[in-house]
Write a structure and sequence with these properties.
8-stranded parallel β-sheet, 10 helices, TIM Barrel, 8 strands, alpha/beta
Length: 280
């Protein structure tokens, strides 16, 4: 895979409903990485992989692929970024054999982490080892107030070249659906304002669509234009796609990639493996 102008991926690299009947691959990560250039890594939120697993991941993907692993919850949710240098070191040391295949390593904070804890965040960022790209997603409404605290937060991220992760759930909440997966997402996912800001060199967007992908067309157009703008500014965006039930999410990503390709002739849209027919 050629080095992309932006990275595009999904929350995971396998799902049973992503493949045509009888086409479930024996090496799902290898197949996934032939079509997508990055993946969110949620497993590290719960437990670190063993060294053999890290080596297997490394051997399964091409050089241009990027893993974006989430920091462990022991750091973000339990320690709340305080007194956790050993845990940070263990996390980075475990993943460092992946080398250049590491993308944005990101902190997903709970809503309990507030702007009142900016001093803890500042100390944490000042002590992060160099040589990695970092991001942070905040979920407390106080970080979206357009006041001095939010300004200080963004300036802190700018100072340390930390990417503010944007999670766009607006279309999901604007179009509530009655199915169980959508209802669960409406309860579990954050409903927050969308502040489009690039505080680092690798803007990171997480976009969640309703199950009816057509409802996201306008938003995808807007994000495609923003992605092009970031690239024109010399940044390298990471864009990830979500749906309440993951079956159609590869198709959502492909829709977006086609929109970007229409705007930039030098960027090809992604292709997909043989898929189950999707009712979207």
């Amino acid at each position: 895979m050629l080095k992309p102008h932006y990275y595009i991926g999904l929350p995971e690299w396998r799902h049973p409903d992503w493949y045509a009947e009888g086409k479930n691959p024996k090496e799902p990560l290898k197949i996934y990485s032939q079509h997508f250039s990055t993946v969110e890594g949620n497993t590290t939120f719960y437990a670190l992989p063993n060294p053999d697993t890290v080596q297997a991941w490394d051997e399964s993907v091409p050089d241009g692929f990027r893993f974006c692993f989430k920091f462990p919850k022991a750091i973000t949710h339990e320690a709340m970024l305080q007194y956790c240098s050993n845990e940070v070191g263990e996390y980075l040391n475990r993943l460092s054999p992946l080398g250049d295949k590491l993308g944005v390593l990101w902190l997903q904070m709970s809503s309990a982490f507030t702007p009142d804890q900016l001093s803890a965040l500042q100390r944490f960022l000042e002590n992060l080892p160099e040589g990695f790209n970092y991001g942070i997603e905040v979920r407390n409404i106080g970080f979206f107030a357009k006041d001095d605290l939010q300004k200080r937060f963004n300036q802190l991220l700018l100072k340390h070249n930390i990417n503010r992760v944007m999670f766009d759930t607006r279309v999901l909440f604007a179009n509530p659906a009655p199915d169980a997966d959508s209802q669960r997402a409406l309860v579990e996912k954050p409903r927050l304002p969308m502040h489009v800001v690039a505080t680092g060199d690798y803007p990171m967007l997480r976009f969640m669509s309703p199950m009816d992908l057509g409802l996201s067309e306008v938003a995808l157009d807007q994000w495609a234009n923003k992605t092009i703008q970031w690239m024109d500014e010399g940044k390298t965006p990471y864009v990830f796609f979500h749906t309440p039930y993951k079956a159609p999410v590869p198709d959502l990503a492909q829709r977006f990639s086609k929109k970007v390709a229409k705007l930039r002739a030098d960027i090809d849209p992604i292709t997909l493996w043989e898929r189950q027919p999707q009712q979207t």
